[in-house]
Automatic annotation (TrEMBL), chain A:
This is Succinate dehydrogenase hydrophobic membrane anchor subunit. Pfam families: Sdh_cyt. Keywords: Heme, Iron, Membrane, Metal-binding, Transmembrane, Transmembrane helix. One of its GO terms (cellular component) is membrane.
TrEMBL record, chain B:
Keywords: Heme, Iron, Membrane, Metal-binding, Transmembrane, Transmembrane helix. The gene is sdhC. It is found in: Membrane. Coiled coil: none annotated. The lineage of its organism: Bacteria, Bacillati, Actinomycetota, Actinomycetes, Kitasatosporales. The keyword Heme applies. One of its GO terms (molecular function) is metal ion binding. This is Succinate dehydrogenase, cytochrome b556 subunit.
Length: 162, 126
């Protein structure tokens, strides 16, 4: 049979154009869909980190609208705007656990939201592996430092420091 | 520049650029802001000295700029959330952008006196 001879010749086109190697008795090999989950796919994939990051940006953003715009209203608009700010003013505000909690949540959410945003931007523009790695290390160091310092300041604030 | 490779994304592209730029600006401000607030752990005088610079006319202009950046980022951020989660969001993204800009202008006009009033009084006397 000429078809079988063709098969050993490693070409899929038969003598007459349009005649193929495959028919009902000789089905074509199945080509697996790209990225299909099979038995060979490793169990440990990379997980959904980027999806949770995407979701966090949106959820934290909604909360930050209230926290940050409220903060700006208090600091820049109400009660004489910036002119009233000073040590005594801060002492008055942080005497209340409510405003301590407000500032603490705002600090953590804004820093994590901003840091995750900057991570995306670094990934977008820093093309060399080395540059990208070190920029992100700098970002993470600055973020951890700022969050810890801000948290410490809220919890250890002492109105009678003098 | 090779012909035909310039991406012209219109309003959607420019709002994305502005969202990015304002996000970075706010992050850098926040870094400095936590450092200056930390001075309350040094001494009341150290804190009040630094806060005094926040009350000068030139820094008042910067504060107005910061308010502009945050208001845009916040309003446009809500628009992004609406585009992603509201089924009709993508269809109305352009109308929502103009709504954002409208609210932004109103709030910026409203912030003029509270944020810059004291600076104007200082520069022009009275
Ligand atoms: C020019 C505008 C601003 C002024 C005058 C201002 C003023 C202040 C003051 C006086 C405090 C001391 C605590 C208190 O009173 O609540 C404070 C703390 C804080 N502010 Fe602002 N703020 C401004 C903008 C912002 C913005 C835009 C953000 C967020 C992106 C922010 C985030 C914070 C945080 C996280 C704290 C707590 C700091 C810490 O934990 O040590 N502030 N701010
Ligand atoms: C006031 C309320 C806020 C809202 C509603 C908001 C909303 C958002 C949203 C939805 C994104 C995601 C964009 C995307 O995935 O494509 C985003 C990105 C970002 N945000 Fe915010 N945000 C707010 C406050 C802040 C603050 C306080 C900072 C800085 C500390 C900040 C810094 C950033 C940065 C750097 C990005 C990344 C921009 C990019 O990838 O192009 N945002 N914001």
């Amino acid at each position: 049979m000429s078809l079988n001879k063709e098969a050993t010749d490693a070409t899929a086109i038969g003598d007459v154009e349009g005649v193929t190697l495959y028919d009902v008795d000789h089905p074509a090999p199945v080509i697996e869909a790209p990225r299909k989950r099979t038995k060979k796919t490793p169990k440990a994939t990379r997980g959904n980190f980027e999806m949770y990051g995407w979701l966090f940006m949106r959820l934290s953003g909604i909360v930050l609208v209230v926290l940050v715009l409220g903060h700006l209203l208090i600091q820049l608009v109400l009660d004489g705007g910036v002119s009233k700010i000073g040590f005594a003013f801060v002492a008055g505000r942080w005497a209340s656990p409510f405003w301590q909690a407000w500032d603490l949540i705002m600090l953590w959410l804004a820093m994590l939201h901003g840091a995750n945003g900057l991570r995306t931007i670094i990934n977008d523009y820093a093309e060399r592996d080395n540059t990208r790695f070190w920029l992100k290390m700098l970002l993470y160091t600055a973020t951890v430092f700022t969050v810890l310092l801000g948290t410490l300041v809220i919890f250890t604030f002492d109105p009678n420091i003098r | 520049m090779p012909a035909g490779t310039l991406y012209r994304g219109r309003e959607g592209m420019w709002s994305w650029v502005a969202h990015r730029v304002t996000g970075v600006l706010i992050f850098f401000f926040l870094f400095v802001h936590v450092l200056d607030t930390a001075l309350v752990r040094v001494s009341p005088e150290a804190y009040d000295d630094v806060v005094a610079t926040y009350k000068t006319p030139i820094v008042a202009l910067l504060e107005y700029g910061l308010v502009a950046a945050i208001l845009f980022h916040a309003l446009n951020g809500l628009r992004i959330v609406a585009v992603d989660f509201w089924s009709k969001g993508p269809r109305y993204q352009k109308q929502m952008l103009w709504t954002v800009m409208g609210i932004w202008i109103v709030l910026m006009v409203g912030a003029l006196y509270p944020v810059l009033g004291h600076a104007v009084r200082e520069v022009f006397g009275s």
